[in-house]
Amino acid sequence: MKQIVLITDGCSNEGISPVVAAAHAVRQGIVVNVIGIVDDGTDMGERGASEIAEIAKAGGGMSRIVSSRALAETVQMMTRKTVVETIRQTVQQELRQLMGPTAALESLSPERRGPVVRMIDELSETGSLRVALLIDTSASMRPKLRAVEEACRDLLASLRARKGTSEMSVLHFPGNTEADLLADWTSDLAKKDELFYKLNMKGTTPTGPALMKALRYVAEAGSSRHAGIRDDEWEGGPPFRASSGDGILSDYIV
């Protein structure tokens, strides 16, 4: 399972539409969640809030607008919910293949539904997961970066508590390219004392180009082979993917 979590405090103002970029991501099986971060007692404005919601909708994810204090909790919540929803969607798809186009998990008898729900819960904990955090580091984000760094470290601690293999990476924009890599796929940020130390923070917010760069990174550079990890070396098996053949429900629906 692969996710991009975009954290920003404003509207994009340069390059391709981030809504278009998010749609590209979801077509490659990468979910895009978006968090708008604001100062206490302020709001993002109608345009910013609308853009955040539209990016998440196009990327198959969810959106929230929160204060710096609620950021860490929100990132973890989004990540967990997206994992569960990804698995539920795959289960739903297989139910329709097995039982017809109107089949739904909720329509199963209790005897059948119970084991499937337990399977979803188990896969949520054991399926391999990669999360790329894409951080807006435009000039207006400077006072919020400490909260963002704490959220990065808290998320990684949460991921490490899962049974399945979990890795996280951190990219930021604007930078020398559309999005610059701060931390490659890792399960340990201990060696990164200050992720955002001495960044050259700029005024523009090229969210769309940054999302395109992030999705290429997740889809290509984020593959297990690129990271030096074979699929069969992942704890809990290879990264979760939609199944073929008998499907993941073959033991539950007969």
Automatic annotation (TrEMBL):
It holds the Pfam family VWA_2. CDD domains: vWFA. It comes from the Bacteria. Residues 1-87 form the VWFA domain. InterPro entries: VWF_A, vWFA_dom_sf. This is VWA domain-containing protein.
